[in-house]
Each structure stands twice: as structure tokens, then as C-alpha cells.
Amino acid sequence: PEFALPQVLGSALSLQSTLPCESEQHYEYSGRCCKKCEPGKYMSAKCTETSDSVCQPCGPNEYMDVWNEEDKCLLHKICDQGKALKEVNPGNSTFQRQCACTTGYHWNEDCDCCQRNTICAPGFGIGHPVQQDKDTRCMPCPRGYFSEVASSTDECKSWTNNMLMVLSFLHLTGTNKILYVLI
Amino acid sequence: PEFALPQVLGSALSLQSTLPCESEQHYEYSGRCCKKCEPGKYMSAKCTETSDSVCQPCGPNEYMDVWNEEDKCLLHKICDQGKALKEVNPGNSTFQRQCACTTGYHWNEDCDCCQRNTICAPGFGIGHPVQQDKDTRCMPCPRGYFSEVASSTDECKSWTNNMLMVLSFLHLTGTNKILYVLI
Amino acid sequence: NIPTGTRKVNLTSWHHDKGQANLSNMTFSDGKLIVNQDGFYYLYANICFRHHETSGNLTKRGLQLMVYMTKTNLKIRRSEVLMKGGSTKYWSGNSEFHFYSVNIGGFLKLKTGDMISIQVSNPLLLDSSQEATYFGAFKVRDLD
Amino acid sequence: NIPTGTRKVNLTSWHHDKGQANLSNMTFSDGKLIVNQDGFYYLYANICFRHHETSGNLTKRGLQLMVYMTKTNLKIRRSEVLMKGGSTKYWSGNSEFHFYSVNIGGFLKLKTGDMISIQVSNPLLLDSSQEATYFGAFKVRDLD
Amino acid sequence: NIPTGTRKVNLTSWHHDKGQANLSNMTFSDGKLIVNQDGFYYLYANICFRHHETSGNLTKRGLQLMVYMTKTNLKIRRSEVLMKGGSTKYWSGNSEFHFYSVNIGGFLKLKTGDMISIQVSNPLLLDSSQEATYFGAFKVRDLD
Fold first, then answer.
1. What phi and psi, each to the nearest 5 degrees, are found at residue A164?
2. 3-class DSSP assignment, residue A160
């Protein structure tokens, strides 16, 4: 078999218990237990009876984030601006590049694309914490808060700081009727 | 050749006229004339000099409706509800499953899909017999019949039983003008 | 209504020995084709989507009808999309039947133990007849 | 107007030895490719449909542009669709040119005497240039 | 706005040895695959086009999203389209994302020195991830 079955914990004595070679950093090949290549490298040649594995560093735009026996590194994905993606972590030879959707959009696994964030109707505001690349969570405005706009970015505004806004609004327009609101 | 040319009628004497093996139930193989497998079975092994053909029954959801040398049965088709098809005959190991379009639709060979039945315009009624899975045939209403609706299911109605309807209609509305119609 | 944004789904229930399906020198288990011999393989898939008005209305938003062929490499515990294809579609209500097929194919290096599987969007719209939706692989030659 | 619902038509007039067309170890007659050797074959077809406004208006109803590859087995006097592909299309009047191509392909077991043929819907819309509409098969290996 | 009818463009910047890309017994230079051995080859290409509303509006006119595979024969200084595929598309503004993939493939006779290249329309709309847009060829057998 390609890889040996993991030893059952607490297994009884077995006649010739050789330590299993196959592990995160080792592999069995041509009768030897050889070292895999470390993250950031790929295996250009397997070990032989007389020589160890030969590892080469990944090229530009490539990575390998695990100990491996692969004959090539993996290619970094493209943070495609044409799909409204931007790079949030360029990645390196041991870490995969990370992309995220530009503001106002979130990654939709189903269409493999950046979908517009949900717009919260009046009476609702966006929930916290606002997570990048995640759809808006619309929360009904609790008592003492309100939202009169449909928006995918606005929170519910509390009445208090809005009272001043209302006043200033009134002031601006010159009528001096004061809105009495039951809090 | 795979199959012998049919003897030309009235052909002259041929030196060694052996009865042709190839027929609906027989086939020629390894110099012998062997039996094909009957409907409902497939041939898991051809005959040899010393053994006959080996036939196995079709599996579930499979059929074979002829004597054959096939190494597999045929797969029943799917009466795909998602295409407005319903099963009219489940079929069995010797008979293919039959599907038909749900009411109001007919199978269109061109698009391989269930197409809406034609709607007969006012003045036309559906022709008989109404065949399942066939498009409506619209017939102009003959003298003494009429149709005032666009429908894919209604026939032309005869005036007679409609005169009462007209009267009752008038009666209902209380005006007592009687429609004189030239029959 | 048929939800348009159903999650990308792994297709597992394939015939592998009935009708036109065939299997030799590869293993099929749990919807995955498992490679038994290193080599260069030609991989392909054909997926048909369909919708008939008798199945209800599609929501107004557009559909994205996609197929993905994925390779799972157990050694590095990694799944990678090998090939993808599909189209956004606007299947309006006024037509009784909608149909769309996508075909993908490519020549790729596979190793013993690699597992090939198919994912699609909108599985409810799949036309699952054997001539419409199928996938496969054949070995073309050994590795160099 | 160009009727949308023209019957599914068998395409028979293929070049088999001109231009890019090639034929070896198979027979071509009456539009059908005839298999001479049992084996696993890769079968494929590419069909292009097109319409220019100068050819008149298309009827308002949608089109369904389809290709079917069929196997005829004379022994059991049976024809079976091996593969199909295509799409419903809404080619409105306000654009002067419409174009759509469909590609199908698959790896299938064929026996001596099997006959492969192509049917399409809407043959009047076919783009019959050699790089647009073609089909073929090549043997990959013997049966097991 | 993104011009719809941009000229047919030759694609030259392909990976030939990174990720899933592979090259053996053929030469790759300046975006062209060069044949080193006469033979029958299976040629294929898969091209994905996409547009997101954040990249600006597409002009009202329809798009024609096409791929062409071309053979250049230096001896007769001739280029010939071997295969083509694609579709006219009406990507309206009210949907945030549009996607379309086209696949072409065929079995063709190639000679040493023949050069295979890919042209597309609307290169700005290309989805250039490795699983979306790729092309290739593999030799099936020698010439007769």
C-alpha cells in the first residue's frame, strides 16, 4: 500500500516492531526510510539506496506548505481584479496567497465569485463585527436606535445623537418646531 | 465478414450450400453455429469449440429486448420529472421503459423536450381523438358550433346546448331581448 | 422556487458499470475515480442542466451553472480544482424549457492514489440521463 | 421566418478526406463512421450555429441548439444516443449576428460494425466551415 | 467602458511548467506549441471569460466571446484556423457577475515544425486562472 495503516494505539507486541517510516517528514522508498522535502521545496529526485532525496526551492509564484514528495510546487492563485478580488496576503514559498473581495462584496462559494453584500432595509442596520469578505448581517434596530436608509454599510443610529441632527436639520431649515419623541 | 450476405433469391447451385448460421437466434463463432442469448439476458461469454454461449440475466434498471450477443444489457431511460416527463410503463428486463409528457405538453423530437400544447384560438376547438403526448390539433368550429375561448383543451360547443346557456345568461341578467340567430 | 445559489455539491452517485459506463485499471469508490497507475491521462466531463416550467419558477436572480473537476492528493492532504467550465444564465419564466450543457477536458499528470471527483452548482437542475451527464479519464501514456 | 422547431436532422454530408478531415482504420459511408476494430475510442464533435439578420427574422420563440452523437448497432437493430450537448437560446432581433458553439466528447467501448452518426437541431443555422463543425473518433486501446 | 469588439488577440503568456502545466516532446516558445514529431495529435483548449460589475459597464452592444486554435506552417508560410468555438453574449448591467466558458477539441494530423497557437476575442475578459483557461496537445499515434 501507498501508505501504511496508522498503528492501533495499545496494540499488543508484534514480533519485529520496526518504527513506521511513513510520517509527516519521512517516506519509504527503495527499501529505505528517507526524508521528505521541507515546506518551500519540492523533490527533484527521490532517494536511492545510496543517496538522499534531492530538494529544490519553489520557483517564483509557487509555494509548498507541507513536507512533501511532490515533483513540483503548487502555483499561487491569482487575486483577479477582474473578479473584484484583491490580494490580502501575497503568500510566499511556504504560505498560499490569500485573496478577498473588494468592499461591498463577499466571496460566494457557490458561484465562485464576489457577490454584492446584502442591503439592510430601513429599520435594520449591519451587525458587528463587520467581517471582510463576508456578507452583511442585517440586525433589526433595537429600541433607541433607527435606520431610515437601505444600506449595506450603515449601522442603526441611536436616537440621542440624532436628536441634535434633527435639531440642526430644523435649525437649518429655519422652522422651530421641536420633535418630541417618547424614548 | 461479420454477417454472411443474404443468399440471392434464385441463385444458381453453389457447391457446398450449408444452411446460413447467422439468424435472429444464432451466430457464427469459432467455427461453430451457437445460440444467442434470449431477451432479458446478455452474453457474459461467447461459445467456444467445446462450450455454448453463457448468458446472464440483466441487472436492475437494465433491459434487452432482442436475442443478442451483447456483453451488457441496455440501461433503462429516466422518465425525468424535471423535464415534465412521467412514466407510462416501467418496462422490465425485456421491455424498454416508456415515458410521456404530463398533461398539457407533448414530446417535441426537435428539442428533445416537453413543449406546451398549441392553444386553439377562439373559433377553433381541439380535434379528436385527443392523444396523450401529442400536440393539440385545432379544428375550425363547423356550422352549428362555436368556441369563444383560447384553450388547448376545449372543444367547439354546439349552439343548441348553448342557446339555453345564452337564455339563462339573459334570464340571469333580467333583460328579455332574445337573440335571433340564423341556424 | 428553486434556490439559485445552492452550494457547490459533490456528485457521488455515478453508474460505473451499467449502460455506457466502463471501468478498467482505475478504481471507483464514493463517487471518486482513483488512479492506480502514474501517467498522463486525458480527463473530461460533460454536464447538462435543464429546467421545465412544471418544476416551478426560477428566482429572478441569474443562475451560474458550473462544473468543477477536482483532484484530491491524500499525501499532501490537498484538493485542487483541475478544470472548470460553465456559464451564467438568465432563464426567464416565459419559456417552458431551458437547457444548457458544458464540456471540459484536459491532459494532466496523475499519480497513484490521486482521486478525481466532480462538483456542480445547482444540482437540482441536472439532466442525469447517461448521454447528458458523465465524466471519465483514460491513460494516454506513462510519465517521462 | 426560420422555423425554430425544425426536426432533428441526421448530418450526412461530411468531408472525410479534404482539408483537415482524415480517415484511417475506419470506414465512412452515408454520413456514418463505421468501426472496423473493437476497442475503446475517444469520440468528439464540435458544432457551431450562427444567424445573421440578413437571413430573416428568427421567430420569437426560443431556439434549442442541440447536437446528438448516436451509435447504431445493426446486430440488435438499435440506435442509442451516446452523447448530447447544446443550449436553449433567445436570439433577439436587435443584434445583427448570433453565434453559439457546443462541444461534446467521451471515451466509449465500440465494437466492429458499430456506426457513429451526428444529428443536430436547426440545421439551417449550421456554420459548416471545417474549423467550426466537425466530428471524429480515435482508438485509444483494445478491449480488456 | 470595456470595448466589446476588441480585435482577435494572440495569447502568448502561458505557464508551461508551473502548476498543472506540462511539456514533453514538444517545444514551447513565444506562446506557441511547436511539433517535434509527425503524428496524429488530439488538440484541445478551454477558455473562460468573466466580467464583474466593479470593472465598469460593458457597452450595450452584444459581446462575441470566441476562441480560435491556429496552426502555422512555416514551410508554406500559412496560418490556418484548426478549430473555433464561442458564443455571442448579452451581459446586461443588472447582474454583478457574468461567466462563460468554451471548450474545443479535435484529432488532427500535425507535422514537425507546425506551430499551434490560441487567439481569443475580448482578452480583457479572460479568467486566467490555471483551471479556467488552458490549452494542450498530446500525440495519439504515428502517421500511417
1. -60, -45
2. helix
Cell of B174: 333580467
User: From CA E104, how far away is CA E138, in angstroms rounded?
Assistant: 14
Q: Per-residue DSSP letters for A6-19?
A: PPPTT----TT-PP
| Residue A141: closest CA among A162, A120, A167 | A120
Ramachandran region, residue C124 (left: φ > 0; alpha: ψ -120 to 50; beta: rest): alpha
Cβ–Cβ < 8 Å for A35, A41: no
- Which of B61, B102, B114 shows the shortest C-beta gap to C97? B114
What is the per-residue DSSP string for C13-79?
A: ---SSSTT----SEEEETTEEEE-S-EEEEEEEEEEEEEEGGG-PBPSSPEEEEEEEEEEETTTTEE
Min Cα separation C99/chain E (Å): 15
B84/C55 Cβ within 8 A: yes
* Chain A residue with minimum CA distance to E55: A82
Percent helix, strand, coil in chain B, to 5, is: 10, 30, 60
β partners of residue B56:
B42
pTM score, whole prediction: 0.84
Interchain CB distance below 8 Å, C96 and B115: yes
Residue D86, beta-bridge partner list: D66
ipTM over 0.85: no
Instruction: Read off the C-alpha cell for B41.
Output: 439476458
Give the DSSP letter of residue E108.
E
Concatenated DSSP letters for B14-70?
-TT-PPP--SSSEEEETTEEEE-BPTTEEEEE---SSS--EEEE--TTEE--S-B--
- Phi then psi dihedrals of residue D55, to 5 deg: -90, 10
Nearest to C102 by CA among E101, A41, A122: E101
At CB < 8 Å, which residues of chain B contact D?
2-3, 64, 66, 68-70, 74, 108-113, 115
B and E touch per CB criterion (3+ pairs under 8 A): no
Digit-coded pLDDT (tens) for B108-166? 877 788 988 888 899 998 887 777 788 888 889 998 889 998 988 888 888 875 454 44
* Maximum pairwise Cα distance, chain A: 98
Query: Do residues A78 and E129 make contact, with C-beta atoms less than 8 angstroms apart?
Result: yes
> Residue A171 belongs to what H/E stretch?
helix A159-173
Q: What residue in C sits closest to B104 (Cα-Cα)?
A: C54
How far is Cα of residue C18 from the mean position of the Cα atoms in its chain? Answer: 18
Contacts of D67 (CB under 8 A, 6+ apart): D45, D47, D84, D85, D86, D102, D104, D118, D119, D120
Chain A nearest CA to E50, separation (Å): 7
- Residue B65: which residues within 8 A CB-CB, separation 6 or more? B39, B94, B95, B96
Strand E39-52 and strand E134-141: the pairing is: antiparallel
Nearest one of C116, C3, D76 to B63, comparing CA atoms: D76
Partner residue facing E18 (CB), from A61, A84, A115: A61
Under 8 Å between Cβ of B123 and B94: no
Distance CA D127, CA D70 (A): 21
Each of the 144 residues of chain E gets a pLDDT tens digit; together they read 344 445 678 999 888 888 888 888 899 998 999 999 999 999 999 999 999 999 988 876 688 999 999 999 887 778 999 999 999 999 987 788 999 999 999 999 999 999 999 999 999 999 999 999 999 999 999 998
Structure-block grid coordinates of residue B19: 444452411
Would the CB atoms of B110 and D113 count as touching at under 8 Å? no
Q: Tell me the residues of D at the B interface, defined by beta carbons under 8 Å apart.
A: 5-8, 64, 66, 68, 73-78, 80, 84, 88, 112-113, 121-122
CB contacts of A81 in chain E (<8 Å) are 55
